[in-house]
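Dear Dr. H.,

I hope your travels went smoothly. While you were away I took the liberty of generating a structure for the chain from your last submission, since the lab meeting agenda had it listed for discussion. I wanted you to have the full record in hand beforehand rather than looking at slides cold. The sequence, exactly as received, is reproduced here:
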Amino acid sequence: MTQFQTIKFKGFEAQVTGYVHSEGWNQGLVYLEMSGAEAHVKAIWANLVSAETKRSGYADEVKRDGSSVRMEKHTKYTALRTVLDNGQICMALVHPQATVLAEGASFYLIAEADHEGPPANFFPRLARILPIPIKAEWSEWLWEEGLKAGEYDYQRLIKKCTSSGHVVGYLVACGDVSLWLQLVQRGLGFQICERCKKVSQELVEHKTIIGYGYGSHRKQEEKVEMLCPECHNPKREEIDF
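The corresponding predicted structure, in token form, is as follows:
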């Protein structure tokens, strides 16, 4: 049975049904779902939001099981509100990188705590970021390998966040997409064309003769690339500068 925590602010109190917090350089709240009387939930929410602009990021007076809640600084959280059958309200604060409208490289995923395999939105969001086309049938393998990649936790491509309640959160690190490309190359036996950046099962060595300069100062250099069959021209390619 899931054990829910309590969040308090002065005389206000609500039940935390879902909580995700990220550690490391981007430490801060990723997802908070709380339910209770409307006045209580709104008072806690208002104090949390005001902490976004604080230098420390901490909502010092808001305590989740005795510990202060830290918001990620200068981050505009999305608030989702639902009225429950008992008249109370349920409110969720969601980090912008955990929404489908997230911009930038790395992103968060929120899933049910008892989920199996990759969350439903893992593959489409990863496919949108990577510079190479990937197939949906690779999704489960990419998920499992992303969780294992890296000798240390901070090197992992997919990092599990501190979570409680009925949800679990993950950070999918895409700041250096070359790490994902290496994973595809190494694990799936595919290679990446140096010109079109598409995945290929076979690459061909392609030589280009680059000529530059004039008269007695003219020089030539040979450039070697590994290209897919579509980009490869069997004839010697010459480029003048």
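Two observations you may find useful: The chain has two domains: 5-189, 200-240. The longest strand covers residues 12-22.

With kind regards,
E. W.
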